[in-house]
Amino acid sequence: MQHLDPIGLSLEGCRDRQHVLREYLRSLKLQAALIVDQRHVHYLTGYWTRTVFAPTALVECEGPTILVAPTAVENALASDENRVSQAATFCTLVDDQTAASLAALQDRIEILDKLGCDGPLPPATSFAGKLTDLSPTLRAMRRCKDEDELAFMRQIVQATEAVYQFARETIRPGLSEIELWSGMLRTASECMGETLGEFGNDFQIG
Question: What is the pTM of this model?
Answer without folding.
Answer: 0.86
